[in-house]
Amino acid sequence: MTSAVEARAGSDAPTGQRPARRRRRRRNERVGYLFILPATAHLVLFALVPILFSLYLSFHEWTSPSFLEAPFVGLDNYVSLFSDDPFWHAMYNTAYYTVLSVPIGMAVSLALAVVVNQKLRGVNVFRAVFFMPVITSWVAVSVIWITLLSPDAGLVNYLFRLLHLPQQNWLDDPHTAMFAIVLINTWKTAGFSMVIWLAGLQAVPRELLEAASIDGAGKWRQFWNVTLPLLAPTTIFLVITGVIGGFQVFTPMYVITEGGPLGATDVAVYHIYQRAFEEFSMGYASAQAWVLFAVIFVVTLLQLWFIRRRGESNLI
Q: Transmembrane region positions (predicted)?
């Protein structure tokens, strides 16, 4: 009723006031565009332009200082990828890393979220401590873990000796290097996923948990049959973003293992980096980057298709 009266009052406004209102509205719009201009310019200059430039380079062979001298080679860079065994080995390592890191990271972060969701004294301190690695530099974290996992003077092997367990050459053994990187990544990123899980846990209606308790369900059955199904949107979000992030992993391989030992941790982005900035084959590296993008895009579409097939399309 009120809105109808206001609309009628606006329509009954003097004719001379309408152009003034339109001018004021346009002025406000221009001010809004000015506010978003810096962010838009940053996005265009440092995201959109490099993306389009890399697409341009993927059809050229750029090895000289000037990209204007790069000859057009058509699809040759993409065709060469089919017989590039080191690149597909790096893609395999990337998929292997993702398959390991996503479920382990989600399980650890969910456990942390359940703990810090309890009404405990000093729980906010624990939340801050668990989140602290997230805001720590990857380079600093990598240097710390190189020291901790040192085969001779590392704290981890020292604890193994105290427990009479066989010591490991964590980062120099092809059989353990990737798993060590996964554990480091879990320690570094679990705090972020913990916050997302915690938001989902706090959104679970208390009435449902109380009803389950009245029906005789224990804490575990409440979590398994009530809480976990209601966390489906959070789970989907973390799975999709985790897979995308897993395929883009770079810093720990670059700082800790440099793709070794024996190529055991040579992942796609690190391989592309070597092609581009060590071998200066920018065109071929750009083609590899676009193939990686296509793989991530297809994997994400498959995840969304699987979710919709299970009848959970309302969650995305």
A: 31-57, 95-116, 128-148, 177-199, 228-250, 287-307
Phi, psi for residue 35 in degrees, rounded to 5: -65, -40
CATH architecture of 86-315: Orthogonal Bundle (1.10)
Nearest of 223, 133, 142 to residue 187 by alpha carbon: 133
Q: Is the model's pTM score more than 0.70?
A: yes
Give me the mean pLDDT over the 224-249 stretch.
93
Q: Tell me the C-alpha distance between 143 and 139, whole Å.
A: 6
Q: Are 90 and 275 in contact (CB under 8 A)?
A: no
**Distance (Å, whole) CA 122 – CA 110:** 19
How much is the pLDDT for 158? 92
Reference 297, options 233, 227, 248; nearest CA is: 248
Apex CA 94: angle with CA 89 and CA 99, to 5°? 125
Provide the H-helix boundaries in the chain. Answer: 2-11, 17-43, 49-57, 76-81, 85-116, 123-131, 138-148, 155-162, 177-202, 206-214, 219-222, 228-230, 232-247, 251-252, 268-273, 282-309
Q: How many Å apart are CA 130 and CA 192, to the nearest integer? A: 9
Measured in degrees and rounded to the nearest 5, phi and psi for residue 124 equal -65, -30
Question: CA 154 to CA 176: how far, in whole Å?
Answer: 15
| Bridge partners of residue 72, in order along the sequence | 60
Q: What is the pLDDT of residues 43-52, one digit of tens each?
A: 999 999 999 9
Q: Please report, in angstroms and rounded to a whole number, the separation of the first and last CA atoms in the chain.
A: 36
Contacts made by residues 200-204, CB under 8 angstroms, sequence distance 24+: 200/113, 200/230, 200/231, 200/233, 200/234, 201/113, 201/114, 201/117, 201/227, 201/231, 202/117, 203/230, 204/230, 204/231
